[in-house]
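Is this the right way to post C-alpha cells for a design question? Let me know if I should format differently. Anyway, here goes:
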C-alpha cells in the first residue's frame, strides 16, 4: 500500500467519504476499519498527493 503524503483527522469520516464519492474524488483506498483503531480512506488530490482521511474509532 502506498504511503500517504498527508493525514487529515475528521470528526465523521463516513460523511466525508460520502461527500468525496459524490464529488467524484479519486478514491485510492476504500473506506476501511484498520486493526489499530482508525476508520479511513485515501484520495488523490488534484496535485497528485495521496491524502489519508481518518477518524479514530471508539
Amino acid at each position: 500500500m502506498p504511503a500517504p503524503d498527508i493525514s487529515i483527522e475528521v470528526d465523521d469520516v463516513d460523511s466525508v467519504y460520502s461527500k468525496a464519492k459524490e464529488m467524484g474524488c479519486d478514491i485510492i483506498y476504500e473506506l476501511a476499519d484498520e486493526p489499530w483503531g482508525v476508520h479511513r480512506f485515501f484520495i488523490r488530490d488534484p496535485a497528485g498527493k495521496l491524502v489519508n482521511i481518518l477518524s479514530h474509532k471508539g
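Format looks fine. Someone answered above. Worth noting: The domain at 6-56 is CATH 3.10.180.10 (2,3-Dihydroxybiphenyl 1,2-Dioxygenase; domain 1). The beta strands are 6-9, 26-33, 38-44, 50-56.
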